[in-house]
Design brief:
It is a single-pass membrane protein. It comes from Herminiimonas glaciei. Required for the export of heme to the periplasm for the biogenesis of c-type cytochromes. The chain crosses the membrane at residues 20-41. Belongs to the CcmD/CycX/HelD family. The protein starts with 6 loop residues before the first helix and ends with a helix. The longest helix has 41 residues, at 17-57. The protein is built from two helices and no strands. It is rod-shaped and about 75 Å long. It is mainly alpha-helical.
Length: 59
């Protein structure tokens, strides 16, 4: 088990910090997109459905 002597050593992770933290960042961004995009699509769908129903009710 690797032990870090300081917080900066933890962030650098034996000169692999850039790879590790960018991989974490990319993973978190993709997870966020998996939550946000369906919510936005649902909102667009419901707005379009409401507009369509409103048009059909007009004489």
């Amino acid at each position: 088990m690797t032990r870090f002597t300081s917080f900066s050593d933890f962030l650098i992770m034996g000169n692999h910090g850039g790879y590790v933290w960018s991989a974490y960042g990319l993973c978190m961004a993709l997870l966020a997109l998996n939550v946000v995009l369906p919510l936005l699509a649902r909102r667009r769908y419901l707005n379009e459905l409401a507009r369509r129903q409103h048009r059909e009710r007009l004489p």
